[in-house]
Amino acid sequence: MLFRSTIRASAALLLLLPFAAACGSQAEAESPSDVSSVTLRVGATGWKTEEAVLKFAHLDDTPYNVRWSVFQGGDQQLQAVRAGALDLASSSEIPPVFAAADGEPNFKVVAVQRGATLNQEVVAPKGSKITDIAGLKGKKVGYVQNTTAHYFLYELLKRAGLKWSDIDAKPLLPNDGLAALNGGGIDAFASYGTSIITAHQQGATTIGSGKDILSGNFLWSARDSVLGSAAQRKAAADLIARITKAYAYVNDGRQSEFAEVVAKATHQPVAQAEKDFRDQQAQRPTAARGVGDDTIASQQKVADAFAQLGALKQKLNVSSFWSRKLNADLKKAL
């Protein structure tokens, strides 16, 4: 249903492209740095975390318009960017790799948001006799394809002395994976975020974690058209910076209050939401930074792993879809 909705939205946007391009050109000509006429279509995964934290910190009064859309994964956000339905996508390091490998990319990675790598796990259902990754040999294992779950499952299997071919891997979306896990359709599930929280609420146990495998680099990818507009670049940098400031506001003694917002959205007890949030911020406070050689190298390592797995047809040079064009504006906004 989500895929069909994205396609319909993409089709509608394509009809508006000539009009939007004309309006964009006119605004650029009038004032390259005037953001008042800018509308940024921004993606979020699971629930609108970034929108919620901005509202909580009273930083949602942007001088430009922001339209948030929720997706089940960063991979779907990148698909929407490719289709012209989003201007900014937030994801792990993995989705841009596959989006770029699938033809000529129309986007660039423009910023990095450092974040926690908790709730990135392989879980077994309640009552399962599987207690570790080695126990997955010959089992049906669900995973969210082209996401962190795909990557850390592969790395965990290697560490356990198993190959990808040693399991019966089933690509599933988070909600479908949860249903299959509880219904006996799969023996384990590799996923992240809200789906892992829900799995534990339903009695699932952790048999492997991506906490120490993942880099903690979460990427902001922008359509090339955004980078081509001074006003849109300024707006994008400002939005990313505001999110960093909003998390700093929460971490300045307001975690308990914000936990109530999180609990309502994720349907978990407030105490658990607060513990999870505190643990995440203790591991790695959420904060943005510009593009650097180290961030590019980190994603290159991920791309190389997928090439070894055979998930990519050929080795990919990730630097081809990174850009430092937002660095100056982001540094100023921060």
From TrEMBL:
The residues the entry assigns to the signal sequence are 1-29
Q: Which family does it belong to?
A: Belongs to the bacterial solute-binding protein SsuA/TauA family.
- Which superkingdom? Bacteria
User: Keyword annotations for this protein?
Assistant: Signal
The record, for InterPro entries, names: Solute-binding_3/MltF_N (IPR001638), SsuA/THI5 (IPR015168)
Report any Pfam family annotated for this entry: NMT1
Keyword Membrane listed? The answer is no
Q: Where is this region: Disordered?
A: 270-293
Spell out the SMART domains in the cross-references. Answer: PBPb
Protein name per Swiss-Prot or TrEMBL: ABC transporter substrate-binding protein
In what residue span(s) does the Solute-binding protein family 3/N-terminal domain sit?
39-251
